[in-house]
Each structure stands twice: as C-alpha cells, then as structure tokens.
Amino acid sequence: MLWKGSAVSRSQFWFLVVVTFVGGITGGAFSGWWLAPSPVKAQKVNVMHAEEFVLLDTSGKARAGLGLDKNGEVGLVLMSRDGNRKLALSPDDRFAVKLSDQSGRVLWSAP
Fold first, then answer.
1. Are the CB atoms for 84 and 100 separated by under 8 Å?
2. Which residues neighbour 101 within 8 Å (Cβ) at sequence distance 6 or greater?
3. Cα angle for residues 26, 27, 30 (degrees, 5° grid)
4. Could you give the maximum distance between any two Cα atoms of the chain, in Å?
5. Rounded to whole angstroms, how far apart are CA atoms 69 and 75?
6. What is the CA radius of gyration of the chain?
7. Predicted confidence pLDDT, tens digits, the chain (111 residues)
8. Do 32 and 24 touch, CB atoms closer than 8 A?
9. Which of 3, 9, 33, 70 would suit a FRET pair with 57, their CA atoms being 20 to 30 Å apart?
10. Which bin fits 72, alpha (ψ -120 to 50), beta or left (φ > 0)?
11. 2 DSSP 8-state letter
C-alpha cells in the first residue's frame, strides 16, 4: 500500500488534494478577472469620411449626390425619376437653391 512507510498520512494527502483543487480554481478565476484584456472600443460608428456620396436607383442611375465640386464647393443635387429636373442646393453658389431642366436652364432659384 502507498501509505505504509510514507511521511504523509491519508487524511493529509486528501487535504492537499482539496487545497490544490480549490487553489487552482480560485487562482484561475482571479487571473481571468485580473489579467483579462480590456474591451476594445471602436471609433465612432456614426462618422464616415468621404468626398462624395451618390445615391443610385435600382437601375444604377444616379438620383442624388452630396459632395464637393472641382472648386471645393459643397453641394447637394437631387434628380427627378425621369431625369428632366434637377434640384441643386449649394451654400457657396450665387443661388443657394436652383431647380433646372434637363438642358440646364434654371426654372426657379432662391438666394
């Protein structure tokens, strides 16, 4: 038998097994809490950087656009479904709001 002639009694052996088991569980839980990496926080998800946004219809035709022109002026352009009218909003233009036809002739404008 294992216990004959050994310096550790049976009760001491089981006491060491229980203490080792409890210590391992406690140490594992504590190290998981203490050494756990902090959660990574993403950048603002409600911010997007771009020079131009274009909205396309189901056929792929541009219906709206928000962006900068070649002079760096900002504008919003909305096109009618049939492409006959265009509404343009640009705070940098002489007329902030313009409604024009397909040929570019201004039908209505406002400063």
1. no
2. 84, 85, 86, 107
3. 85
4. 110
5. 8
6. 37
7. 455 656 767 788 888 889 898 888 888 887 877 777 777 676 666 777 788 899 898 888 889 989 987 888 888 888 988 878 888 888 888 888 888 888 888 888 888
8. no
9. 70
10. left
11. T
What single letter denotes the amino acid at residue 42? A
Report the SS3 class of residue 89.
Answer: strand
Cα 84 to chain centroid distance, Å, stands at 37
pTM across the whole model: 0.51
Judge whether 79 and 64 are in contact, CB under 8 Å.
yes
Interacting residues of 55 by C-beta distance below 8 A, sequence separation 6+: 62, 63, 64, 65
Beta bridge partners of 110: 97
Name the residue with tokens 């049939």. Answer: 82
The rounded distance, in Å, linking the Cα atoms of 72 and 91 is 12
Q: What distance in Å separates the CA atoms of residue 110 and residue 93, rounded to the nearest whole number?
A: 11
For residue 12 the two structure tokens come to 């001491």
CA 106 from chain centre, in angstroms, equals 40
